[in-house]
Recover the amino acids of this structure.
DNA sequence: AGTCAGTAAATTGTTGACAATCTTGTTGCA
DNA sequence: TGCAACAAGATTGTCAACAATTTACTGACT
C-alpha cells in the first residue's frame, strides 16, 4: 500500500507521456507485463484514457530505453533480451557500477548512509510482509540510490537503464526455484564497506553480488522461441 | 565533398525520423548549429520538407541523447552543457572507454587493426586537406570504431552519446587558439599499444588523451549567458 | 484434406485543423 | 517617463479523421 498500485479507471488526469512510461515500466518491473507481450496503441489509450499521440510518444521513449521493441507497422512489444544481450548488460553493470561505487565512497556523507540504512529497512520490511512486487522494486532502487551518491548524471542515467534491463532479464531467465534477485545480506555488507571507506571491498561485494545473480539464471531451452516450445509440447500430448 | 553536405531543397525524399536526427546531429557536430540555438518545428519542417510529426519525433529522440533540450511549450534548443555537466561527461568517458579498450584488446583481430589504421589514414588526409568538418567527425568516429571491437552494445551506445557530448563541449568551451580536439599522434599510439596487446598502456594513453582535451577547455566567462556577455562588451566599446 | 488467393477486420502511419500557451508590441495610466 | 495591463502574432500541444499496412479469416480449387 505504499504506492497507488492501480489508479481509478483513468478519469480526469492530465497524464503526461512520462506518466505512461513510468506506469509501463512499473508494470514490467512488477512482472504484471511479461517480456514479449504485445502492446497495442488502442488498448493503452483506453486503459490510460489518453489519445494515441501520448501513447505513441511514450512508446518512442520506452524503445530508447530498451524497455519495448518498436517495429515499423508492427507496433510495440515488451523487450525480451537475448542471452547475449543479457551477458552484455551484466558486463556493463559491473563496469559502470564499480566506478560509481568508488566515487560514492569519496563523496558520501553521514546523512547519505542513514538514507541507505533506511532503505535497507524498507527492503527487509517488504520481504517480511511478503510484498514481493515492492521488494523487487526496492532491491533495484538500492543500486540507484547508491549510484546517486557519485553525482554523475550521465552514468546514473545509464545505470538506471541497466538496472531495469536486469529486472527484465531476471523475469525472463530467472529460475524461480532459487530467487536470483538481490539476495542475502549483500546490500547490508556493501553499505558497511562504504561507510568504512573501503571502496575496494564494496566493489568486490558488488562484483560477487552480480556474478551470483548472473549464475542464478538459466538460458537453457527458451532462447527466443519460448512459445514455440510450449506449443510443440502441447501438440505432442 | 565526401558527403552530401546540403541536399537538394528537400523534394521527393521519404525521410525518416532517424534521417532528421542524423542531419541535426551532423550539423551540430560540424558546428553549423551552435549550442543554444533555438529549433522551431516549422523551420525544420520547411527545411526538410516533412510534416511536424516527424520533426517532433526527431526532437524527442534527440532530447533523449542530450543533443537538444526540450522544454514544455517552449520548443527545442541545441543543448549547451554546463561546466559541471562537461566534467561529468569526461569522467564518464574515462570510466566507460577504459573498460571498452580493455575488452577490445582481448577481442580484436588482425583485420580490426587494418581497419583502424585505414581510419587513421583518413584522419590524416582530412587534416592535410584542411577539411576541418570532416576531421572533427573522423576523430570522434575513431573512438566509436575502437569501442565497437569490445562487442558490448549497451556500452557502445552509451559511449556514442558521450562522444557526441564531448564534441558539443569542445564547440562551447574549446579555446580555438589551441585546437583542443584529438591532437597529436595519440590515436596512432593507442592503436600501436592495442596491437601489442598492452591494454594498460592503451588505457593510459587514452586517459592522458582525455585529460589533455579537458585541460584545453576554458570555462571562464560564459557559463550560461554567452550572448549577454557579448552584448555587454559591445555596449562598453 | 490441404493449399492458395482474395477479402474483411484490425492496427499502425500520416496529415491537417483546432486549442492552449508563450512571446512580443502597443496602449493607457499614474 | 516608467510601469502594467492588454492584445496580436507566433509557436507548441492535442485531437480526430483518413490512408497505408499488416493480420486473420473465408472459400474456392487441386
Amino acid at each position: 500500500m505504499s504506492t497507488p498500485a492501480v489508479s481509478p479507471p483513468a478519469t480526469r488526469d492530465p497524464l503526461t507521456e512520462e506518466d505512461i512510461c513510468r506506469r509501463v515500466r512499473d508494470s514490467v518491473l512488477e512482472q504484471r507485463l511479461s517480456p514479449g507481450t504485445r502492446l497495442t496503441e488502442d488498448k493503452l489509450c483506453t486503459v490510460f484514457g489518453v489519445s494515441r499521440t501520448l501513447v505513441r510518444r511514450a512508446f518512442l521513449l520506452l524503445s530508447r530505453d530498451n524497455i519495448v521493441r518498436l517495429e515499423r507497422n508492427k507496433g510495440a512489444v515488451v523487450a525480451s533480451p537475448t542471452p547475449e544481450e543479457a551477458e552484455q548488460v551484466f558486463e556493463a553493470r559491473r563496469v559502470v557500477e564499480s566506478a560509481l561505487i568508488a566515487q560514492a565512497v569519496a563523496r558520501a556523507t553521514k546523512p547519505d548512509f542513514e538514507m541507505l540504512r533506511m532503505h535497507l529497512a524498507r527492503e527487509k520490511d517488504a520481504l517480511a510482509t511478503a510484498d514481493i512486487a515492492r521488494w523487487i522494486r526496492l532491491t533495484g532502487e538500492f543500486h540507484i540510490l547508491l549510484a546517486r551518491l557519485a553525482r554523475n548524471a550521465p552514468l546514473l542515467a545509464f545505470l538506471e537503464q541497466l538496472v531495469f534491463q536486469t529486472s527484465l532479464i531476471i523475469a525472463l531467465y530467472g529460475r524461480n526455484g532459487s530467487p536470483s534477485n538481490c539476495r542475502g545480506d549483500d546490500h547490508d555488507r556493501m553499505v558497511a564497506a562504504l561507510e568504512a571507506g573501503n571502496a575496494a571491498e564494496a566493489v568486490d561485494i558488488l562484483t560477487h553480488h552480480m556474478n551470483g545473480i548472473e549464475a542464478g539464471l538459466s538460458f537453457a531451452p527458451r532462447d527466443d522461441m519460448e512459445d514455440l516450445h510450449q506449443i510443440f509440447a502441447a501438440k505432442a500430448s
